[in-house]
Amino acid sequence: MFKCGDKVIYKSFGVCTIEQTDYVLESMNSKGGDVPPRLYFVLKSESARGGQAFVPADKAEELIRPVIDRADAINLAQQLSEIEPEMYVDKNMHTTDQHFREELAQHDCITSMRVARTMEHRIAEQEATGHKPSALYIRLLDAARKQVQEEYAAALGLSIEEADEYLKKATSQA
């Protein structure tokens, strides 16, 4: 299970550190009756925006996951150039946006890498035909890269900038 100090991914926050595993919250239900105390994990966001999250301990397994370990991060970086872009296509940009936002909401490192590769591919296609890259594609690329960089920074004990350089180097060597 999880313990204080563990780096985890919380789907709503990204990379977090578990600060407390035994926070008890006593509350009342909407009808004024007492609700039995509930145990929570207290998470501190590692992102620049900061903040804390309270995750019910009985839901922790489905809401948070450990950050990938160092060995997996190194292995995955070596395979980064082999990740194929997703072939999802929809002419409606709103539907496309929704699809890829749902992908990124999973906060899965490989999925985020695939979204980044997809957006890089689509931007390159647009530029090759003389078109300006879609703002949607640029925004999704930035969001996907940010998720990957944050997880790599946590896994390898690097700053976000160092993780970005590490990933660029790994991609250029492959």
From TrEMBL:
It comes from the Bacteria. Residues 2-68 form the CarD-like/TRCF RNAP-interacting domain. This is CarD-like/TRCF RNAP-interacting domain-containing protein.
